[in-house]
UniProtKB/TrEMBL annotation:
This is Uncharacterized protein. InterPro entries: FPI1 (IPR021066), Ser_Fungal_Prot_Inhib_sf (IPR053741). It comes from the Eukaryota. Keywords: Signal. Residues 1-16 form the signal peptide. It comes from Henosepilachna vigintioctopunctata. One of its GO terms (molecular function) is peptidase inhibitor activity. Pfam families: amfpi-1 (PF12190).
C-alpha cells in the first residue's frame, strides 16, 4: 500500500470520526424530540435502585443501581455507547469485573 493511500485512508477515518462525534453531541432541543421509556417507582423498586436522569443526553428517567462490594460490574470503553445504569458505590471501583475497595 502506498504512502498516499495510507494517508488518504487515515484522513477518511478522521473525517468520519469527527462527523460522528458532532452527530452525537447533545443540542438544546435534543430532549424535545427524544422518546423515552421512563422508569417509574413501580419498575425501579429493587434494593439499591433509584431514579435518575440518564439515557441519551440525560433526557430520560432511568433506573440506576448502586453496586455493593464484590458485586459484578462492567466498565464500558465504547465511545458514544449507552450511558451506564450501574456503578460501584462510593469508595469502591470496578476491578476484574467486581466492585472492590479503593486502596490509596
Amino acid at each position: 500500500m502506498s504512502t498516499l493511500s495510507v494517508s488518504f485512508t487515515f484522513l477518511l477515518f478522521v473525517l468520519a470520526f469527527g462527523s460522528l462525534e458532532c452527530a452525537i453531541k447533545c443540542q438544546e432541543d435534543t430532549c424535545d424530540t427524544l422518546k423515552c421509556e421512563h422508569a417509574t417507582p413501580e419498575t425501579c423498586n429493587k434494593p439499591n435502585q433509584d431514579l435518575r436522569k440518564g439515557g441519551f443526553c440525560n433526557c430520560c428517567t432511568v433506573c440506576f443501581t448502586t453496586l455493593q462490594e464484590n458485586e459484578e460490574c462492567h466498565v464500558s470503553y465504547l465511545l458514544g455507547g449507552p450511558p451506564a445504569t450501574t456503578a460501584c458505590k462510593d469508595g469502591l471501583e470496578c476491578k476484574n469485573h467486581k466492585c472492590q475497595k479503593v486502596h490509596h
